Structure formats: C-alpha cells, structure tokens
Amino acid sequence: MLEGWILFSEKQGDLKKSSYAVKRLFEEGEKSGVEIKVYSPDRFDLTVTREDRKSILLDGKPVALPDFILPRMGSMATYFDLAVIRHLERMGVPSFNSSSSVEVVGDKLFSQQILAQGNLPVPKTMLVKFPVNVDLVEKRLGFPIIVKTVYGSQGSGVFLCDSKKQFLNLIQIVEATKGSAHIILQEFIEGSKGRDLRVFTLGGRVIGCVERVAKEGEFKANFSQGGSVKPFALTPEVEWLAVETSRLFNLEIAGIDLLFDGDHFKVCEANSSPGFETIEQVANIDVAKEIYHFIRIRLGKFEKIQKLNNTSVDLDDSCVN
To answer: In 3D, which of 188, 265, 262 has the Cα closest to residue 220?
Structure first.
C-alpha cells in the first residue's frame, strides 16, 4: 500500500467541512489502496542536517516518510509551507506539485510574466506603483479595469472598477490602509464578464473542462463565490492553452482558468491545488481516482498493483471452479 501525505492548512477534524477536494482524496485513497494522512505544515519542525532521518519532526518526533506528498495550500502557501515541501523533496519524497511550481503560480504577476514570455495570450497586466499614475493606467489599460492582489485564491482580492473615479476611490483606500500592498491591474476582457473556463489538467493532459458563470449582478465566476457551472465542449485551442500553461509552470496537477475573448481565449491564471467538485459533479469525472492512477504510474507502482489484481482474480476464478 502506498502512503501519501496531504499538506493542508486546516485542522484534520475540520476537513470534511472545509475542503471537498481533500475529503475526496481521503475517501478515494481508501478505495485505491493509498493510505492518506493529512497534516498541517505547522506541525513539522525542520533542521538542516546530514542526518536526514532526524532532520524533520512531526509533533516533535521523528516520522517515517511517505511515498509522496500532495500540497493543498495553493496560492495561500506561506514561506514556512514552502520550506516544509522543499525539505521533503530534498529527502527524496516526490511532491505533486513541486515547491517551485506552487511558489511561481502563487505570484500572479510573475506567472503572467512567464506566460507572456511563453507567447501565450494573456490580459495586459501592470504592477501598481504608489503613488499611482492614473493617467498612465488609463492610457495603457483603460477602464473598466480589474484590480487584484498579487496573492489570493477563489476570487478573493479581485475587484472590478467600472470607471476612473471608482478606481481612484479604491486606490485611495488602499494607500490609506496599507500603502505597501502588492497590487496588479489587468485589462478588462468584456467577452468574459461573469464567465470563464476552468480546465483541469493532469500529467500534461486535459481530463475535464467546465464553464463557470457568475450569479446575476456579479462578475466573479468562481463556484466558491456563488457561481454556477456547466459542461464545456473541449476545443483544440482550449486544450492547447491549458496543456501549454501547465507545461510552462511544470504543474502536474492544475486548474487553468481561461477568459473568453471573442472567438478565442486568454489565459487568466493557473492553480496548483485546484478544487474539483464542479468537474466531478458536472462532467461526471472521478478526478480523485484519476489523480491516484497518475501518481501510481509516476512512481512506477501501477504495474505491480495490476499484477496483484490479476492474481486475485485468478484465485477467485479457481475457487469458483
């Protein structure tokens, strides 16, 4: 039996209430012969030493290392969270996704720079410099405009300013409360107001795609923000954009968000620990099962399990005969 750790910031007793994905991974692990343990990174103590066995402690005690880890902090991963992932990676524990990938996609500006360098279509993006040159913003991006914090997930820290005046009011509040805030501005893609695509990729291939639609009067299409979802027929363009985005960030498990731009699409962002409640329910795909299937192949354990299953079938047949 494989053993995996899910690194998750919530307390284990609250998992079923706080994360559908973690709950499903835990449940499917029992069915797929994978023993899953869920730990918050703050339960670990790290020591840089050549004595690997004692260089990481769980609740103050040495612990046997798992076969793999699944970080589920996403863009909210702290420096300490990333340090724990890095430490385990350097002790030979495979991480799906890697610490470097989690860190890169957690920075919305840096990730946009990488996508642009890779020649992928992205919204025009500016980093806010205080005091803000509003005339320059209007000239380069225009209004309406999207205002985002550099770090954030599930639609948090994202605002739509319909006018120059509204933008000025928001910036003044930011300057008055937290002048050092890291904020980016993005052009508003009119064709994607209140809707976008979430494409789930695994191991360099697309396994599901849904269209998310915001509730009436809102512009955020996130399911966690009250939006609705429906299946979306995959096109070559959508598939290529999602797969190429995952490749650029070296993401083995990813949720890629695409914006509607006329007859084409632009890459909004990538998520390193995407939720998959909508895809499982709407597209009728067992994402948790697919993830374990992929991990077994990556770890070279799938063939052994297949042989074991085949052996058990033969035994059962012989008993019947």
So the answer is: 188
Query: 249: which DSSP letter?
Result: T
Report the C-alpha gap between 131 and 202 in whole angstroms.
Answer: 42
Sign of CA dihedral 106, 107, 108, 111: negative
The whole-angstrom separation of Cα 268 and Cα 121 is: 9
* Helix or strand run (H / E) with residue 187: strand 183-187
Cα–Cα dist 270/268, whole Å: 7
| Phi, psi at 257, each rounded to 5° | -100, 125
pLDDT of residue 294: 96
Question: Which letter does DSSP use for residue 68 in this model?
Answer: E
Q: Any long-range contacts for 170-173 (C-beta under 8 Å, 24+ apart)?
A: 171/128, 171/132, 171/134
Class of residue 262 by CB neighbours under 10 A (exposed 0-12, middle 13-18, buried 19+): exposed
Task: Name 256's bridge partners.
Answer: 199, 270
Other beta carbons within 10 Å of 263: 7
Distance CA 229, CA 206 (A): 18
Residues of the chain with pLDDT under 50: 11-14, 16-17, 308, 311-321
Rounded CA-CA distance 212/274 in Å is: 14
Tens-place pLDDT, residues 99-155? 999 999 999 999 999 999 999 999 999 998 888 899 999 999 999 999 988 876 555
**Could you write out the DSSP letters of every residue in 46-105?**
E---S-GGGSEEETTEE----SEEEE--GGG--HHHHHHHHHHHHTT--BSS-HHHHHHH
pLDDT in tens, 240-252: 999 999 999 999 9
